[in-house]
Design a protein that fits this description.
The chain has 550 residues and is α+β, with helices and mostly antiparallel strands. It has three domains: 2-128, no CATH class; 185-365, no CATH class; 440-548, Carbohydrate binding type-21 domain (Immunoglobulin-like, Sandwich). Helices cover 28% and strands 21% of the residues. The chain has helices spanning 2-32, 57-67, 137-145, 177-184, 236-248, 259-271, 321-325, 339-345, 348-365, 370-381, 383-387, 396-401, 416-429, 545-548, and strands at residues 46-51, 72-78, 81-90, 105-108, 123-127, 154-161, 164-172, 191-194, 228-230, 286-290, 296-300, 440-445, 458-465, 471-477, 485-488, 491-492, 502-509, 516-524, 529-532, 541-544. Strands 1-2-3-4-5-7-6 form a seven-stranded mixed beta barrel. Strand 2 and strand 3 form a beta hairpin. Helix 1 (2-32) crosses helix 2 (57-67) and helix 3 packs across helix 10 (370-381). The longest helix is centred in the N-terminal third of the chain and has 31 residues, at 2-32. The chain starts with a helix and ends with a helix.
Length: 550
């Protein structure tokens, strides 16, 4: 095998060197050629054509993956636009299998020419949708998650290698600098991926074993390198400090972690039974990115095993269909070995927020059946390319039945509706989710009176909530990339309120007349919490101080 590796590394090097001459030309041509199809267009199926220097490319890519970190040089045509000087590797851990053509692919466009990109993207990640006979799990999860937090874009594409049709794949946006820039406004922070393909040698003997990306605290900084991959030059000390705060000062973890985003990630995992994640047996398949506010942002990754395709929670044997349907929304709430869940949910308000997120995800996507309609649409897009795929793992009949029925005698992958119809009903009736949250109303921001000469220099915000609210909080910021600041809203005495209704108000000082306040409100009662606006993660309230002074 090693001989095969070296046999093809030399031609690859020659090809890469030759590509230096032509890459600039092709990059300029690509820049001047409008792309008819956006890379992650969800209404069409894309097309990627790879040309590699060997007809035995499967063995070459196997060799490169097994024996080293190098990649094979290739040219690539993406939806009709050609780039030379690209490099290709097989990717994946459990999703990779030696000798298969239909493995996950990692393609880089800028290895030879640093500036080369396709519509701003420098890398392509192709998922083979392993253990997903429907081929909709990854796209459906990403689309639902995108309503509530930053997540990768995903779309279908057909893949050809040396003119041979390999099959239809899921093209998933890479978690890289472009992703960080688009979603967090900068790409300079440390990025960690939970889980490593190869553990470092000579680890300290004191390191905890088999904890993966659980975020358990370790005294020795080197121990973290056995469980996380770092995609930047530094950040290990900050990661260790995050785990220390989780373990020892959970009330202060918000200084280093976007807690609300973490609660959204965990809620999405739970509702859609994504156990190949932090919430399952191995705490893997997520990223942590340290943003411009020096807080870690959690990001989903590798979602082809969601919706119950992976069934182990870390104790006992794999869950059966009934257990998947009735998975506890508070799974791991008391598990010390899952501190991101257990330590965050110790806080009563965090617990209510997490349950509010589960309730919202369930109501907006599953109880109303919209997920099934979308799953059918996604499957309909790829009926022909799936049927034409000679390398497919599942039969066409399995593909057609998999949205509604269990597929496989051994792995027994549940159908989406078979799982989610009963799961959504179970969550709706769960005792922790039947508690009615406060409904916030009459949100107002005080403006300057008609005949008042004194200009306002602060934002005065008031609101009411029903169902006997205990407390109300304002979350505010003055710039989109800033972290929200939370302040309590004191209760106001207001006459004529109905039983169970209370009024609250708070003032936020402004620095200039041009300040724009970006805010949302949270109210909690004894059993639950509610937000205004409900879709605050995508569209919060905004008001400019100068508008209030008109």
């Amino acid at each position: 095998m090693k001989k095969l590796l070296y046999q093809f590394l030399l031609p690859a090097f020659i090809l890469a060197t030759a590509a230096l001459i032509s890459t600039t030309v092709y990059a300029q041509q690509a820049a001047n050629t409008p792309a008819a199809r956006p890379l992650f267009d969800k209404k069409t199926v894309g097309e990627i054509r790879l040309t590699m220097p060997s007809s035995d490319w499967v063995n070459v890519l196997d060799s490169l993956r097994i024996y080293g970190t190098e990649a094979l040089s290739a040219s690539i045509v993406i939806d009709g636009i050609r780039y030379d000087g690209a490099t290709v590797r097989f990717r994946g851990d459990k999703s990779y299998a030696k000798g298969l053509k239909r493995n996950p692919f990692s393609i880089k466009l800028n290895t030879v020419s640093p500036g080369q990109n396709h519509q701003g993207y420098t890398s392509i990640k192709l998922s083979a949708a392993v253990r997903d006979p429907s081929m909709v799990r990854e796209l459906l999860f990403h689309e639902i998650a995108a309503k509530y937090m930053p997540t990768s874009q995903a779309a279908y594409t057909k893949l050809f290698v040396n003119e041979e049709y390999i099959g239809v794949f899921v093209n998933v946006e890479s978690i890289d600098k472009q992703f960080f820039e688009n979603n967090y406004g900068n790409s300079r922070g440390a990025a960690f991926k939970a889980g490593v393909d190869i553990k470092p040698e000579n680890l300290p003997a004191t390191c905890k074993q088999n904890i993966f990306g659980s975020l358990e605290y370790e005294d020795n900084l080197d121990c973290y390198k056995a469980n996380f991959e770092l995609d930047s030059r530094g950040g290990w000390t900050e990661l260790q400090e995050l785990t220390r705060k989780l373990a020892q000062e959970p009330s202060k973890v918000g200084q280093l972690l976007d807690v609300d985003r973490a609660l959204w990630m965990l809620a999405l995992n739970n509702v859609m039974v994504n156990l190949s994640s932090y919430s399952g047996n191995h705490s893997v398949n997520y990223y942590l990115y340290r943003d411009g506010n020096n807080r870690f942002q959690p990001i989903h990754w590798d979602l082809n095993l969601s919706f119950g395709s992976f069934k182990n929670i870390g104790s006992g044997s794999d869950l059966n269909l009934r257990a998947l349907q009735t998975l506890d929304p508070l799974l791991h709430a008391d598990n010390l070995y899952k501190p991101l869940i257990s330590q965050l949910l110790k806080d009563p308000l965090n617990r209510k927020i997490y349950l509010a997120h589960i309730r919202q995800i369930n109501e907006e996507n599953f109880l109303n059946g919209t997920y099934e309609k979308r799953a059918q649409e996604l499957r309909g897009m790829i009926v022909v390319p799936f049927n034409d795929d000679k390398n497919k793992t599942y039969s066409y009949d399995d593909f057609q039945r998999s949205i509604n029925s269990t597929i496989g005698k051994k792995s027994r992958i549940p159908g989406l509706t078979e799982l989610m119809v009963k799961r959504s009903r179970f969550l709706k009736g769960h005792q922790e989710l039947t508690k009615l949250p406060p409904v916030i109303s009459e949100v107002t921001v005080k403006g300057r009176g008609k005949f008042e000469s004194q200009k306002l220099n602060a934002f005065h915000i008031s609101a009411r909530a029903d169902k006997y609210p205990l407390r109300m909080y304002l979350y505010y910021r003055f710039a989109d990339q800033n972290a929200y600041t939370m302040v309590p809203m004191p209760e106001e005495n207001a006459a004529g309120l109905a039983a169970g209704v209370k009024a609250f108000a708070v003032q936020v000082e402004a620095k200039s007349m041009e300040d724009v306040l970006d805010y949302y409100i949270l109210a909690e009662n004894v059993g639950a919490a509610g937000f205004m606006p409900v879709n605050y993660t995508k569209q919060s309230f905004k008001i400019k101080l100068s508008e209030l002074n008109k």
